[in-house]
Write a structure and sequence with these properties.
The complex is a heterodimer. Chain A contains 8 helices and no strands. By secondary structure, chain A is an all-alpha fold. In chain A, helix 2 packs across helix 3, helix 4 packs antiparallel against helix 5 and helix 6 packs across helix 8. In chain B, about 25% of the residues lie in helices and about 30% in strands. Chain B contains 7 helices and 18 strands. In chain B, strands 1, 2, 3, 4, 5, 6, 7, 8, 9, 10, 11, 12 and 13 form a 13-stranded mixed beta sheet that branches. Chain B has a 3-stranded mixed beta sheet with strand order 15-18-17. Chain B is elongated and about 85 Å long. By secondary structure, chain B is of the alpha+beta class. Chain B has 3 domains: about 60 residues; about 160 residues, Sandwich (Jelly Rolls), CATH 2.60.120.1440; about 70 residues, Phage tail protein beta-alpha-beta fold.
Chain lengths: ~160, ~350
C-alpha cells in the first residue's frame, strides 16, 4: 500500500489515544476490504482509501447520540433491545421515520436552493464551481448555501444531544 | 466558562465544519493537511468526528427523500453581456477594427485531444462517467456566462452555447456554440474538451472553440493545443487556427488578438457560409431567421459586427453578405437578390 504511512498518521490523528494495535487492526480491516477492488475503476485511489479509513473509524466508535444519527440510533437500539429482534426493527423504523421527518423539515426551512445545492454537492458529487455554473449563481453563493444547510443540520444534532 | 474558551470552541467548530464540507467534495485531496489539523488539538479530532457522523447520517437520510427539481435559474444577464468577459487575462487586445475590412481571420474554437499522451486522459477514458450524470450549462440567446475553475482557469460561454461537464469537473464537452478558454496548464492533469469526435487538449493556453453542427473552428491565442480527430493528431500553436468541415482539416494563420473576439461582438469568418453567420446572429439576438437554400450555402469570409437587435444587425450585415432580407410576421427571411450572380 503506497499510502500506508499517511494512512497510519491519519488514523492516529483521528483516533487520538488509540493503541498501536488498534491502528494495525483498522489497517488490516481496510486492506481486507480493498483487496478485491479493481483500482482502475477508481478515479482517485488515495482519496478512496482515506475515505474508507474514516468510515471504518466512525463505524467503530459507539456514539450514542440522539437526533438524526442512523448509525448511532442503530447502536442505541442494539444496546437497549438486546433480545427482541421484532421490537428492535420496529423501533429502528420509528427512529428512522422520525429522523427522516426531521431532516425534511430542516431542508424545507433552509430553502429550495440551499437544499438543492446540498444534494448536488453531497449526493451527486458535483463540484461547487459546476453547481454555480449550472444554476447561474456565483461560487460564493454556493459556498454560503452549503454552509447554511450544514449549520442547520448541526443545530438539530446539538439540541438533540442536550435533551 | 470564560469567554476565551467559548471563542476557542467556536473557532474549532467553524474549522471542523469547513473541513467536513470540503472533505465531502468529490475532488478533495488534502488528506495530509487534514491530518495536520486533526493532530494540532485534541478537540479538533473530537469535533471533526462528531460532525462526520452527523454528515454521514444526514446524507443517508436525504438520499431517502423524494428527489427535488432544480430551482428556477437566474434571469439572463442583460445586454451588453460580452463586456463583462474582457477582464480575462489575455494578450493585449487591439481596439475594434472597422468591419468593412475583409480579413482572413478565423475565430476558431479550440478542440484538442491528445489521447495518445497523458496517462490522466487514458484514465478518464477508462472511467467514463455515464452521460446521464453529466450536467449541462447552457446560455440563452443574448446571454453570456463565465465559469471559474478552482485552479484559476476560466471559460467564457457565448450566447446560445451549451457545454456539458461530468460532475467532478474532469471532463468537458462543447455541445454547440462558442467558448473561450483561458487554462492554467497542469502537466499532470491537462485540460481536455470534447467536440463531437474531436478532442482538444491544452498545453497551457488561451484558445477559442466554435462548434456549429459539422463546423468546428479552433483559434489559439496563447500557448498551444493538440487536436486529435480520427487518426490525425495536429498541434495548433498560438497564431494559428484549425478549421474543420465535413472531415477535412485545415490550418490557417490567425491574428492572436482576434481569437475570441466574439466577446467584443466581432465575429471573424473565413471559408464560412451565410448560414454560419446567421447562426451567430440568431444566437446573439435571439431572432428567428429563415434562409433560402441558395442564400444559406453562399460562401462568406470577413469580419462581422453582431451586436444590438436583429433589425440593426441584419441591415448592416446583409449588404456584406450580399443577401436581402424581408419580414414575415416574427421571422426574418434571408434570400439572394434577384440578379445576384452565383459565387
Amino acid at each position: 500500500m503506497a499510502h500506508r504511512k499517511g494512512l497510519i498518521r491519519f488514523l492516529q490523528a483521528i483516533c487520538r489515544g488509540a493503541a498501536a494495535t488498534e491502528i494495525e487492526d483498522a489497517l488490516q480491516d481496510l486492506w481486507l476490504r480493498c483487496r478485491d477492488i479493481d483500482t482502475r475503476n477508481i478515479n482517485d485511489p488515495k482519496s478512496y482509501l482515506y475515505r474508507m479509513a474514516q468510515n471504518l473509524v466512525l463505524d467503530r466508535e459507539r456514539r450514542v447520540t440522539r437526533g438524526l444519527l442512523c448509525e448511532a440510533d442503530w447502536g442505541y437500539v442494539n444496546a437497549r433491545v438486546a433480545d427482541s429482534v421484532e421490537e428492535a426493527t420496529a423501533e429502528r423504523s420509528l427512529i428512522a421515520r422520525d429522523a427522516l421527518a426531521k431532516i425534511d423539515r430542516i431542508l424545507k426551512k433552509v430553502g429550495e436552493r440551499p437544499s438543492w445545492i446540498f444534494r448536488r454537492y453531497r449526493l451527486d458529487g458535483v463540484q461547487q464551481f459546476l453547481i454555480a455554473a449550472e444554476l447561474g449563481v456565483s461560487l460564493s453563493t454556493v459556498e454560503k448555501d452549503l454552509h447554511k444547510v450544514y449549520q442547520a443540520i448541526l443545530r438539530i444534532e446539538k439540541s438533540s444531544n442536550e435533551e | 466558562m470564560g469567554v476565551a474558551v467559548n471563542d476557542r470552541d467556536d473557532r474549532i467548530e467553524a474549522e471542523a465544519l469547513d473541513w467536513t464540507i470540503r472533505v465531502q467534495g468529490s475532488e478533495f485531496a488534502e488528506w495530509e493537511a487534514l491530518t495536520d489539523w486533526l493532530q494540532a488539538d485534541p478537540l479538533h479530532a473530537d469535533t471533526y468526528k462528531r460532525f462526520a457522523v452527523m454528515d454521514r447520517a444526514s446524507a443517508d437520510l436525504v438520499r431517502q427523500l423524494p428527489s427535488q427539481s432544480r430551482p428556477e435559474s437566474q434571469p439572463p444577464v442583460s445586454q451588453p453581456p460580452v463586456r463583462q468577459l474582457t477582464s480575462m487575462a489575455l494578450p493585449g487586445r487591439r481596439s475594434i477594427r472597422p468591419y468593412s475590412r475583409p480579413l482572413q481571420l478565423m475565430a476558431a474554437s479550440l478542440l484538442v485531444a491528445t489521447v495518445a499522451t497523458a496517462g490522466w486522459i487514458a484514465r478518464t477514458q477508462l472511467q467514463r462517467t455515464p452521460d446521464s450524470t453529466w450536467l449541462a450549462v447552457s446560455t440563452r440567446p443574448g446571454e453570456t456566462r463565465s465559469i471559474h475553475l478552482p485552479d484559476g482557469s476560466q471559460i467564457a460561454l457565448a450566447s446560445a452555447t451549451t457545454m456539458s461537464f461530468d460532475p467532478s469537473g474532469r471532463q468537458a464537452r462543447l455541445d454547440r456554440g462558442r467558448a473561450m478558454f483561458s487554462v492554467k496548464h497542469n502537466p499532470e492533469h491537462p485540460f481536455s474538451v470534447q467536440l463531437g469526435e474531436m478532442t482538444v487538449t491544452d498545453i497551457g493556453t488561451v484558445f477559442d472553440l466554435h462548434r456549429q453542427g459539422p463546423l468546428v473552428d479552433i483559434g489559439v491565442s496563447q500557448g498551444e493545443v493538440r487536436v486529435v480527430s480520427g487518426d490525425q493528431a495536429v498541434p495548433v500553436p498560438a497564431g494559428r487556427s484549425l478549421h474543420q468541415r465535413h472531415g477535412v482539416l485545415r490550418i490557417d494563420p490567425v491574428d492572436r488578438s482576434a481569437v475570441g473576439s466574439w466577446r467584443d461582438g466581432q465575429f471573424n469568418y473565413s471559408d464560412a457560409t451565410v448560414a454560419d453567420v446567421v447562426a451567430d446572429i440568431m444566437a446573439v439576438t435571439g431572432a428567428s431567421i429563415r434562409m433560402s437554400p441558395e442564400a444559406a450555402t453562399k460562401r462568406f469570409a470577413g469580419l462581422v459586427q453582431i451586436e444590438g437587435d436583429a433589425q440593426h444587425v441584419l441591415s448592416t450585415v446583409a449588404p456584406m453578405l450580399g443577401v436581402q432580407m424581408a419580414r414575415d410576421g416574427g421571422t426574418w427571411i434571408v434570400s439572394l437578390p434577384p440578379n445576384a450572380a452565383s459565387r
